[in-house]
Amino acid sequence: MKITSAKFIKGVVGEDQIFSDGIPQVAFLGRSNVGKSSLINGLTNSKISRESNFPGSTQEINVFLINKSTYFVDLPGYGFTRVSGLGKQKIGDLITKYIFNPNFNQKKIVLIIDAKVGMTEQDIAVFEELEKHKKDFIIVLSKIDKVNQSNFHHNLIEIKKITGEYPLFPCSSKTKKGLGPILQCILAKS
User: Fold this and answer.
1) How many Cβ atoms are within 10 Å of 179's Cβ, its own excluded?
2) Predicted model pTM
């Protein structure tokens, strides 16, 4: 699988017809500053998704058309405390209404966990909700280039205690390590 085209379509802040137009959707979900935009840029070999060093800067759902046949849906990050209470609530509602809306059918959800940090309480809660709703998802461990092998191995053991048999995809958007298997998985024909 190879990405030959990637185009920003629009930013969405509520219900939108685009999510019901029949084009398969791959949603990218994770904490603020976990590397969602960097992962999308790494997978598309582009700078299509705006990256920021400021956590919480994405406050809408960004939709990209990939290979003229699939949407990559970049969701706002959850769990950033500098966003005001009302802002956090709106972002949480935006994510929940998209992920768990029975009218929107994601082909795959990519739950991104920072390999250096491991799973936070919020990550665990999101994982459990995805499981409970029987969502088709994979777990990507981002930023493996920023963690030493010993800490990574320790975090991996702890993550596997929570996730069990779910496939884990360690990767680095910076070095491009591990991006191929993720792309194969999310773009594979169902």
Assistant:
1) 19
2) 0.91
